[in-house]
Amino acid sequence: MKRVIFALGVLFVFACSKTELTSQSPTNITQKPVTIILDSIKITGRADTLIISKSFKFTITGYYSDKTTKDLSDSVNLVSDKSNVTINGKSIIGAQSGKSVISVTYNNFSLKDSMYISAIENVDLNTLPFLTTPSNSSAKIIVPVVVVNYYPTLNGIDIDTKRAPSYGSLSPITLKDLKDKTIQFLNLTKFGLEEGSKFRAYNNSSQASNVSFKIVKYINLYEIKRGLKDKPDAALSAQDKLTPVFQPDYFDVFNKINLQTLVEGSGVKEVWFSLRPLSSEYPVVKDSLTNGLTAANFLNLPESNMSSPSGDVSNSYRMSNDLPVYNKTYLVYGYNLETSSANMIHNRGHQIEAQLSYLDNRFWGVGPSQTDGYADSTHLGWTHCPPNTTKGYDWNNKTLTASDIEDWKPAGGIKKLINSDRWMNINYTIPNPVNLIPYDPNDPQLKWLIFWMQSIPGYNNGITGVNDWWDLFYNWDNAVKNNSKLNN
User: Fold this and answer.
1) Is residue 387 within 8 Å of residue 408, measured between CB atoms?
2) Are 316 and 304 in contact (CB under 8 A)?
3) Distance (Å, rounded) from C-alpha 46 to C-alpha 111?
4) How far, in Å, CA of 403 to CA of 405, rounded?
5) Are 324 and 254 in contact (CB under 8 A)?
6) What gap in Å lies between CA 374 and CA 179, rounded to an integer?
7) Virtual torsion, Cα 444, 210, 314, 223, nearest 10 deg
8) What are the start-end ranges of the H helices in 291-376?
9) Quick one: which of 214, 282, 223, 226 has its CA closest to 251?
10) Torsions phi, psi for 219 (to 5 deg)
């Protein structure tokens, strides 16, 4: 006879006829054998919610007629009613969001339990000491940052390469490997930005960071709703019109992570939004549709995107309705996990150019040829071009050219011959360890960008009449309100 009892939402099944153990008395004493019966099994360790990519193992306890118990966790069988979990041995891995009912069986005993699979993971900040610690706790500007990473998956173990391929291919990668790689990317990015805020540190090794960063929230997202097209219709090419790529639905994402409170109440100024890949320009998106890829499955972000009550001044298409607008300005930087940390810093370089040139048209120079500006080829240079070249991306050019980048003043400084040897011969002490994406001391883009940013006048720059450009850049609302200029 079986008795079925429901208690606290968990199904218990008792089978009193089941014999598990038989105890025999010593052979020199005549005594009837004692039969120990498994009366019931119960889930004594369960989870109401499981995050995609996370593993969980039920604790199953058997209760016997002699009042003893036994851990049966390694002996049960698990079956899910849906494909939103992956059964891995005796463990469950979250795969897709939604409710899942798990059947647990042991011999002729069975019970069911339900759990919700969540697509949002708040990573413990204590596991990210470098990212959460400003390089200079006394820096004039400390920038609070929210990190959002998008990792599409079908099984909770591997990246879904049909939604997130690598550069030009469907090469597989596990979620764990990409998560670890992301952290290393962000470590190097943060290091480069902080190092770049040390005003003319190439001539003063004791110079401290003017700007430091502190990650205050680190979120992994495994599912994202599709938002607007990544380009306005007027900017779409013939190919783009056939296979448009979309941005994330920022309104949905930012509402779920409560970004408005973080921006308006906690002073968050930036969101570092990482994914793989970044752009529909990659061949795997455009040319491999016959392999089951659909461009509409891909998400694309501008390199930088501004949301501000005073309007969008960013290196994007400046669409007015793609980002939620709060009462304070924040920037969303798109980070491509298939490139390099130098490219992430590169994105900020163009944002610096966008904001500073908005405040002061002298940044690029005047006249049709844009000569004698702060960023022209004989002065500070810019993201794409050091001062010794006019060719984009030519960061390792050996041509010697006279420039006052190391002594720039509005009226002109002392010029000296300079080429790529000047920034390539500078050595940096990078965060340790960086294993998956080793620091490349011969990366001319990274070396140039740090050198270039160190030439931007910061706090106590000592240049007569020149303001703190980092203050104008990071405290944008005040700069716009006060109609600030780069120089007095």
Assistant:
1) no
2) yes
3) 13
4) 6
5) yes
6) 40
7) 80
8) 341-359
9) 226
10) -125, 135
The token pair at 459 is 């706090």
The residue type of 25 is: S
Q: How many CA atoms lie within 13 A of 298 on its CB side?
A: 31
pLDDT at 444 over 90: yes
* Residue among 217, 228, 428 at smallest CA distance from 341: 428
Per the CB < 8 A criterion, the answer to whether 471 and 416 are in contact is no
Cite the DSSP H helix spans in 154-205.
175-196
Say if residue 165 is preceded by a cis peptide, omega within 30 of 0. no
Q: Mean pLDDT across the stretch 312-316?
A: 97
Alpha helices (H) in 202-301, listed in sequence order: 238-242, 250-256, 259-264, 283-287
H-helix segments, 2-85: none
The CA distance from 17 to 34, in Å, is 14
Q: Which residue in this structure is represented by tokens 């003063």?
A: 204
- On whether the CB atoms of residues 41 and 109 are closer than 8 A, the answer is yes
pLDDT value of residue 263: 98
Q: Beta strands 109-118 and 330-336: pairing type?
A: unpaired
Q: How far apart are CA 151 and CA 313, in angstroms?
A: 29
Total residue count of the chain as it appears in this document: 488
Please give the Cα distance from 278 to 284 (Å, whole number).
Answer: 12
Q: Which residue has the higher pLDDT, 3 or 198?
A: 198
CA dist., res. 484 & res. 471, Å (int): 10
Cα angle 457, 460, 462; round to 5: 75
> Mind listing the pLDDT tens digit for each residue in 68-121?
999 999 999 999 999 999 999 999 999 999 999 999 999 999 999 999 999 999
- Does residue 446 contact residue 342 with C-beta atoms inside 8 Å? yes
- 455 within 8 A of 386, measured Cβ to Cβ: no
| 147 bridge partner residues | 218, 272
pLDDT above 60 (res 486)? yes
Domains of the chain: 2-118 (2.60.40.1080), 122-481 (no CATH)
Q: What are the angstrom distances between the C-alpha of 69 and each of 43, 223, 449?
A: 13, 41, 65
Asked whether the CA dihedral 39, 41, 42, 44 is positive or negative, the reply is positive
SS3 192: helix
Tokens of 66: 């002699």
Q: What is the rounded average pLDDT of the residues 193-204?
A: 97
Contacts with 89 (C-beta within 8 Å, 6 or more apart), sequence order:
none
Helix (H, G, I), strand (E, B) or coil at 311: coil
The amino acid present at 113, given as its one-letter code, is D
H or E element in which residue 480 lies: helix 476-481
Tell me the per-residue pLDDT of 10-23, one tens digit each, with 9 for 90 and over.
Answer: 434 434 434 344 44
Sign of the CA dihedral running 67, 70, 75, 78: positive
Residue 202 pLDDT class (50, 70, 90 cuts): very high
